[in-house]
Design a protein that fits this description.
The strands form two sheets. Strands 5-4-1-8-9-10-11-12-13 form a nine-stranded mixed beta sheet, sandwiched between helices. A four-stranded mixed beta sheet has the order 3-2-6-7. The radius of gyration is 20 Å and the shape is globular. It has 298 residues and is of the alpha/beta class. 32% of the residues are buried. It is built from seven helices and 13 strands. 26% of the residues lie in helices and 28% in strands. The termini are far apart.
Length: 298
């Protein structure tokens, strides 16, 4: 093999392909959520790009970059990043896959992802369809939130007819596929089935939760879900999902179905994990932090 080709192959970045929602979020701060039939004025409102898929892609990109040193100019930060990765070659490339509508929101959402360093070749613009919108009510006292979303273009995303996963990584086979159930369930199941056959690592966050056929779980490297998602998918009442024994029982349910690593996020209690290798434990949440908004926190 020519040395130039070997050098090119050696510089190939790790590809993380994210499949999920790309939303315009309308955030309203309220003292408390209104009761049924009650009307109230919000304290403030903001329009921000969001969506579980888009947020995940941006977070993955940021987490894979060196942290900037205190005080340097933007030019110095860019030079530091370039030097840290050698010849400007990034070690990790994050590719977003999803859909937006052919409206102003769609244009803004795609531009925001690109500005954040995420590859948007896999973001499709669907003609005559509105972009995905989510209305979020945030309680000022607790930071808790309630969301109502309209999926819009999300429901129109699908894999290529050929079933090739190359398109998810911008023409390169991804090393890790991260997805949720925001896009159509049958598309997620098909994608995970193909990824399993090809030995590609996968991570599923089952939001919004709905029934999954049992064979899907054997294709999951990582399953990350909150308490309500865990209860629904394991067939347990949420009120019974309390304490280490209950977390372990629920986690073992998914290990028995073939998942390699299970994480149950527990909000202020932290997170519980259990693996096929026999590892398990409770990771405590960070202490002494101010909760501003739990939207998109998983």
């Amino acid at each position: 093999m020519p040395s130039s080709i070997q050098a090119s192959a050696a510089r190939r970045p790790t590809i993380i392909a994210v499949i999920g929602g790309i939303n315009m979020d309308l955030l309203m701060n309220v003292y408390r959520a209104p009761d049924v039939g009650e009307s109230m004025d919000a304290l403030s409102m903001a329009r921000l790009p969001g969506g579980k898929g888009a947020n995940t892609a941006i977070a993955a990109h940021r987490a894979s970059r060196p942290k900037p040193v205190e005080g340097p100019t933007a030019r110095t930060r860019r030079a530091t990043t370039s030097a840290a990765h050698g010849d400007g070659q990034l070690d990790i490339k994050v590719c977003m896959n999803g859909a937006v509508g052919d409206d102003d929101y769609g244009t803004e959402l795609k531009a925001r992802l690109k500005e954040s360093g995420v590859d948007v070749d896999g973001v499709r613009t669907i003609p005559d369809v509105v972009s995905n919108v989510c209305v979020v009510l945030i309680e000022t006292d607790t930071g808790g939130s309630r969301n109502v979303g309209y999926p819009g273009a999300n429901l129109h995303w699908e894999l290529p007819e050929s079933g090739s996963l190359l398109s998810l990584g911008g023409g390169v086979m991804p090393d890790l596929i991260v997805t949720s159930l925001v896009v159509r369930r049958e598309q997620v199941e098909r994608m995970l089935d193909i990824a399993g056959e090809q030995g590609i690592d996968t991570l599923l966050n089952p939001s919004s939760p709905e029934y999954l056929v049992s064979k899907v779980y054997r294709n999951l490297t990582h399953l990350v879900m909150n308490e309500s998602e865990t209860a629904m998918l394991s067939g347990r009442p949420l009120k019974e999902l309390t304490g280490l024994a209950a977390y372990q029982e629920a986690g073992n349910h998914f290990l028995d179905l073939g998942v390699q690593n299970v994480v149950i996020t527990l909000g202020e209690k932290g997170a519980y994990f259990i693996t096929q290798k026999g590892e398990s434990g409770l990771v405590e949440a960070e202490k002494d932090i101010e909760v501003v908004d739990t939207t998109g926190a998983g």
